[in-house]
Amino acid sequence: MPDVPNAGQLALLVMAISVFAVGGVLSVCRLRWQGHALRIAAKACLYTGILLSVSVLVWHARDRGSWLPLGDNFDALIWLGLLLALFVSYTQRTRPLRGLDWFIMPIVMLLLIAAAVFGRARPHEYVHTTWSWVHRVTAYGGAAAFAVAGAVGAMYLIANHTLRAKRLNPGAGLGSLERLEHITLVSVTLGFALLTIGSVTGLVWVLEGRNTLGPKWYAQPKVLLTFIAWLVYALVLHSPINPRFRGRKTAMLSVLGFALVVGVLIAVQLMPGKR
Amino acid sequence: MDRLLLLGLNHTTAPLEVRERLAFNAHQRMEALSRFRQQFPNCELVVLSTCNRVELYAAREVHGHPRTEELIQFAAEFHGLPVAHFAPHLYHKANRQVVEHLFHVASSLDSMVLGETQILGQVREAYEAAAQASAAGPLLNPLFQRAIAVGKQVVRDTALNEGRLSIASVAVDYARGIFDHFHDKTVLCVGAGKMATLVLENFVGLKPGCLLVCNRDSAKASAVATRFGGHAVTLDKLADHLIAADIVLTSTGSAHPIVTRQQFDRLRKRRRYRPIFLIDIAVPRDVEPSVGQIDNVYLYNLDDLQQVVSQTQAQRKGAIDAARKIIVQHVESFVAWHRQRELGPAIHQLYNRYHQIAQEELARTLGKLPNVTEAERAHLQDLARRIVNKLLHDPVQAVRHADPEHMPAAQYLHALEKLFQLRERTTDVDSPEDELSDEPRES
What we know:
The structure holds 2 protein chains of 2 kinds. Chain A is an all-alpha fold. Chain A has helices at 7-29, 36-64, 73-94, 100-121, 130-164, 177-207, 221-237, 248-270. By secondary structure, chain B is α/β, with parallel strands linked by helices. Chain B has 3 domains: 2-161, Glutamyl-tRNA reductase, N-terminal domain (Beta Polymerase, domain 2, 2-Layer Sandwich); 167-315, NAD(P)-binding Rossmann-like Domain (Rossmann fold), CATH 3.40.50; 334-431, no CATH class. Chain B has 17 helices and 11 strands. Chain B has helices spanning 16-22, 26-39, 68-79, 83-86, 96-106, 118-132, 140-157, 167-178, 194-204, 218-228, 238-244, 261-268, 302-318, 320-367, 374-401, 409-420, 432-436, and strands at residues 2-10, 44-49, 53-61, 91-94, 186-190, 210-214, 231-233, 247-250, 276-280, 297-301, 441-442. The two termini of chain B are 26 Å apart. Chains A and B meet through helix 5 and helix 6 of A and helix 8 and helix 13 of B.
């Protein structure tokens, strides 16, 4: 039986979500007020949220009796959120991109909310074999990279629109189009590699006959959506060869690809049985 | 006891020919500070000299020297100018008005270009020079440190310095919105006129990898290219240059567009659909407006850039109130702090003196009462202490909380010292009307 998160763990998770939400509000406030205190407070919220999320994972791993990550869907969704929050924290420390948290932190909050809802209402344990473990790590790692690509792609579209509309303070806050496109392409490249490994290991697992997808596994929403997402990202990666796809089209495809990945994640949560 | 005095002129009161004759360069400033210290050893001075203003901030003893006329004379003698040459353009302020004025200056509210941040560096430079020459002391040190802090806060907390006020810097901002780095970018300037040169100057600051200048007059193109470290290229190969370029600045006198949609569509594939930033500052326009509709092409003409400049101006004007609020808070706080600092020791001295008198009188009385117990003696001592405290409480509170607008701390202090003989004063006294006035006077 999967280890259903207890009230304490859920309370910690709700605290993490709230702290991230406060950080997000403070971050938006910085659009209007430039105070140093606001910047510090927003940063403190980000770090506190990360710390609280790690505490939930540690506590839950202790209860499960296994320190391997991605043990069940509760763990997996928190890990995914945590990876994204760590990416924001790393970027803002090394070369700040002011608008990044407005786009990624809402995804982090949604993932943590999904962990709280699905982890309790539809808890399911993952199968513990080498293939399935590689499949999970690469699939969730890929999803994190695609989330970054989707968020930064959305930033690109807004920044591009602002520049074309010839507004005041061009590019303020969202970074240059060139940098946004670079981050999108790097994230998609990494995500695509991870998704490909995840899909192949998943396929091996299916062909071994040890999955719960049934005989028509290829018609399952999870498999279909993954395949379409893989095609979309292949098209994005095609842009250096066919430069017609660069810029706005790459950004739009990244946003579309991430929407498909979200669909896959939802399909995974709604599937019956062990994965 | 200190007292603030400001003597100055700026772009609103004096023409350039007067300002430049009264200006101090770095060397002159140090010499002026040194001479001032020799002439007025107990006074402080900070000399702020920029393109738009020359201001002398002095702190002196109450009723002491230099007086305003002496400060004017000092400036005139230093520059070897007759007083009449610049006196009509001078303004002078005292005490609170000096604090207000300096905070406005440091926040760039008094600048020719509202919101420019250069002035803050100039105020800091002026203060550091005075500190180095030991000309800034117990009053001008905290005053200038506070002014710099106020200037920084206004920059940080208001929109006063946001945006750009020149077409060239707006264009550079747009370029930064499109490109992340410029070391691998090519800037192409089509036209070599004055306007193009001005904008190009800003783009050269981005350190682009390659700079191409092309013009009908190749000699002119070569001259501009040499000036900015670029290469002169011919206009007949414009299409090839457009393929290589990432940023294109056009400012020719051509009556027809030199870059058309049809022509650009043909180049896109050869450009590998790379983003291109086109700045068309020519009138009539050099680039067909429909070129701007192409994906990854960012076209801005003179009106687009001018519109952003106008929006910035409006935004900065809207931020004046917020900046003034910050200044008012700091002026109040500085004046209160200064008042406390000036009055504190005198009030302390006043209490000490009167407690001492009370204890002396009590000792005399106790000498006449042989049967007083220790407990009764303690009660009487306490009584004497409380009477002194109660008698002094009201006047001291009145002094502490008096409206500084009505009467500055220095005058209360002077009155306290005179009325209660707190310390012997030896300074020569100016006419009361002259020294008690806290109003600024225009010379």
